[in-house]
UniProtKB/TrEMBL annotation:
Highest rank taxon of the organism: Eukaryota
Domain Fe2OG dioxygenase positions: 226-326
Lineage per the UniProt record: Eukaryota, Viridiplantae, Streptophyta, Embryophyta, Tracheophyta
Main location: cytoplasm
Organism: Lotus japonicus (Lotus corniculatus var. japonicus)
Entry keyword annotation includes Nucleus: yes
GO cellular component: cytoplasm; nucleus
Protein name per the record: Fe2OG dioxygenase domain-containing protein
């Protein structure tokens, strides 16, 4: 350890009572505790975002230009080419950026603003929504899994279940919060349904001609219409020593697709060709990624990809992820159309209860849950 590191370690604020960490990073920040990163957030050297050991090996210096899918092309005469680009993006990256969608810049600005206002509320007002109950319609919290993480993430979050029945539970003290977020939830659900239909077509679940509907496609699209949607708003405060910690640890998302809105501040990194690469924000575009459920449903053709969030010293960051899947009560299974002699069924059936039981029983790590559903080791 260098003399500078020893000095830094000596002045580290370690007399913070554990309970303070559970109030969130923003609260610590507001209470002036953050001249250095407290030990609670310091990752082992091998897991840090940049270390002198791993820079040449697994951290790419340049940002990654993800494939871009033009939403209008999915709906018009260019659909066949757009489907091909979509299939390539899903197979090669598990991520793409969606542009030219029908959500207005004003609606996007309003949702980022209103989420920012929530995080700006006095701690006591935010704290009303603090719970470790993963089924709560509204959940304010910190880190990734607050009850299980040994090292905390530099992130606070607000999770909202998005069924219309849940909206009356959402924060009410912020003027038009409910209206703005409910409108945004409906709009992202529409995007999800259009993209999901295109993905089914790209997988051969639905034939190229709209007239040739298949029963499987009709059933699953009906389930998606009634499906689960969870909104996760993330707030990453500025960090005095961003090389020691992460805003979010490497993870994959549990659902079929996640539609992520990020503000103009970089932070999202995805694993691509065994390197961590930064996703360059495009104003008002959605970063869309494959979740574990779609990896299962597609029998591993489209894979969920590990991603993480780095923080910085200069600017706080806000992102809003909209996670979509089947209804919480439905079983997720491999599509029978994607099983044959060459491609035997690779994943066990699963459901939301199994996922909750799994993540409640251990520290969530990387793609552990998905790996626990594999029937045999597959690439
Ligand atoms: O903030 C981001 O860019 C990513 C958020 C994320 O991965 C998540 O909410 O699961």
């Amino acid at each position: 350890m260098s003399p500078a590191m020893v000095m830094n370690d000596q002045r580290r604020e370690d007399d913070i009572p554990e309970i303070q960490y559970h109030k969130g990073v923003k609260h610590l920040f507001e209470n002036g505790h953050l001249q250095t990163v407290p030990r609670k957030y310091i990752l082992p050297a091998s897991d840090r975002p940049t270390t002198s050991i791993d820079v040449p090996n697994n951290v790419a210096k340049q940002n990654l230009q993800l494939p871009i899918i033009d939403f209008a092309d999915l709906l018009g005469p260019n659909r066949p080419q757009a489907l091909q680009s979509l299939a390539n993006a899903c197979e090669q990256y598990g991520f793409f950026q969606l542009v030219n969608h029908c959500i207005s810049d004003d609606d996007i600005k309003s949702v980022i603003d209103v989420i920012g206002k929530f995080f700006d509320l006095p701690f006591e007002d935010r704290a009303k929504y603090m719970t470790t109950d993963m089924r709560a319609p509204v959940r304010y919290g910190t880190s990734f899994s607050q009850t299980k993480d040994t090292v905390f993430c530099w992130r606070d979050f607000l999770k909202l279940m998005c069924d219309a029945d849940y909206v009356p539970h959402w924060p009410s003290s912020l003027g038009d919060f409910r209206k703005v977020v409910a409108t945004y939830a409906e709009e992202t659900k529409h995007l999800f349904l259009v993209i999901m239909e295109a993905i089914l077509e790209s997988l051969g679940i639905m034939e190229a001609s709209k007239e040739q509907k298949t029963e499987e496609k009709d059933n699953i699209m009906r389930d998606f219409s009634n499906g689960s949607q969870m909104m996760v708003a993330n707030f990453y405060p500025t960090c005095p020593e961003p090389d020691l910690t992460l805003g979010m640890h490497p993870h994959s998302d549990y659902g079929f697709l996640t539609l992520l809105l990020q503000d103009e501040v970089e932070g999202l990194q995805i694993q691509y060709q065994e390197k961590w690469v930064t996703v360059q924000p495009i104003p008002n575009a959605f970063v869309v990624n494959i979740g574990d459920h779609l990896e299962i449903y597609s029998n591993g053709k489209y894979k969920s990809v590990l991603h993480r969030v780095v923080v910085n010293e200069v600017k706080s960051r806000v992102s809003v992820a909209s996670l979509h899947s089947l209804p919480f009560t439905c079983t997720v299974r491999v599509s029978p159309k994607l099983i044959d002699e060459e491609n035997p069924k690779r994943y066990m059936d699963t459901d939301f209860e199994t996922f909750l039981a799994y993540v409640s029983s251990r520290e969530p790590k990387k793609k552990d849950f998905l790996n626990s559903r594999k029937l045999f080791t597959c690439t």
